[in-house]
Amino acid sequence: MRQAAWVIGAGGLLGSALVRALGRQQGVALHAPRQRLPWGDNALMAAQLDGEVAAFAQLAVQAQRWCVIWAAGVGSMSSDAATLRLEAGALDLLLERLAAQPALRATPGCIVLASSAGAVYGRSGEDFISERSAVAPGSAYAAHKLNQEAIVGRAIQAQPGWTALLARYSTLYGTGQSRDKAQGLISQLARRIVANEVVHIYVPLDTIRDYLFADDAADRTLAAVGDLEHRAGQAVVKIIAAEQATSIAQLVGAFRRVSRRPVRLVTSVNSLSPLYVRCIRFRSEESAGQPHSTCRSLHISIHQVLEAERVAAFRREARST
C-alpha cells in the first residue's frame, strides 16, 4: 500500500533520521514543503500551513493513506513558558488545518507526535518504566510535552478514522545534532573532544540514562506506525528506547576508548541540575512495533558521531581560511 508522509522538523536530529528511514521504504510519497515553517509567528505559520496541507492532501488521496510526523520544536528543558506556548500553538494550528481538509478526513491517516519519555516520567520512582507507569512530570517542559499529547488525543477523538502514535523517546543522539541548542550529552562530548575543550557535566557521573541512536529510533517509529493500521480512533502511547541502562561514567569511558584521547571533564551544578533524576530505565510493553529491531552498539554509534564532528570541524576551518 502506498502512503503519503510528511515529516515536520525534517532538519532536526530525529526528523532527518525519519526522512532517511521513509526513503528506504517502498511505496512512500514524501511531501517536501516549499519552505521552512516560520517559528515564532503563528499568524504567518497559519497562512503557510494552509498551502502545505492542501498540497499534502492531494498527495494523500493518490496514496490512499497518509502519515504526518511532528518531530519539530524549539522547546527544551531550559525554554521559557512563552516559547513552549508558541510550540503548542503551532501544533494546534497544524491539526486544525489537517482536519479542515475533506480529503484527509476521508482518508485513513496517522499522526505521530515525538514526545519525551525522560521528561514525562522524570519524577517516577519505578525501577523500570513502561507505558503502564503513571506520568510524573517534573518540569515545565515535561508538562508541555503532556499538553501536546493531549492536543493530539483530542484531534483523534474528533476524527475517528485517524490514529495517533504518541512516541515517548528516551535520550536520542546521532550525527548532525543542532549546534544552536546546548543539549545532547553525546554530541557535546564529541564536539568538545574534537576541539580539545573541557566538557562541563552538571549531574553526577553515576546518573543513568537510556541512549538511543536517532536512526534506530526512526526505524522503530515506522515499525510501530505500520502496526497501527487497524487501530483507528486510538491515540497509542509507545515508549521508544534502547532499553539499555548506561551511566555517564560509562559513556565517558566509551568516548575515551573510541577516541583514544583523554576526556577533559569538569563536574558542577547549575539551575537545571535539580530537574534531572539519577536513574531512568525503560521497558516498552506496547505491542505496536514489536519485536524491536536491534540497536547498533554504543561504541559503533559513538564512532559515527565523532567522525561526523571531525568532518564538520574540518569544513568549518576550511570555510574560515
Side by side, the strands of the main sheet go 2-1-3-4-5-10
Unreliable spans are none
Q: What is the CATH domain class of the domain at 3-172 and 211-242 and 282-293?
A: Alpha Beta
Q: N-to-C SSE series?
A: EHEHEHHEHHEEHEEEHEEHEH
| Alpha-carbon distance between the two ends | 51 Å
Look at the structure and name the CATH superfamily of the domain at 3-172 and 211-242 and 282-293.
Answer: NAD(P)-binding Rossmann-like Domain
Mean pLDDT: 90
What is the CATH architecture term of the domain at 3-172 and 211-242 and 282-293?
Answer: 3-Layer(aba) Sandwich
> What's the number of helices?
10
- Give the proportion of residues in helices: 40-55%
Describe, in plain words, how this protein is organized in 3D.
This protein is an alpha/beta fold. The chain has a domain at 3-172 and 211-242 and 282-293: Rossmann fold (3-Layer(aba) Sandwich), CATH 3.40.50. It is 43% helix and 16% strand. It is built from 10 helices and 12 strands. It has helices at 13-23, 42-63, 81-99, 102-105, 117-120, 140-158, 185-194, 214-226, 248-259, 298-320, and strands spanning 3-8, 28-30, 66-70, 109-116, 162-169, 171-173, 199-201, 208-209, 211-213, 235-240, 246-247, 265-267. The strands form 4 sheets. A 6-stranded parallel sheet has the order 2-1-3-4-5-10, sandwiched between helices. It has a two-stranded parallel ribbon with strand order 6-9. Strands 7-12 form a two-stranded parallel ribbon. Helix 3 packs parallel to helix 6 (140-158), helix 7 packs across helix 10 (298-320) and helix 9 (248-259) packs across helix 10 (298-320). The protein is globular and about 60 Å long. It starts with a strand and ends with a helix.
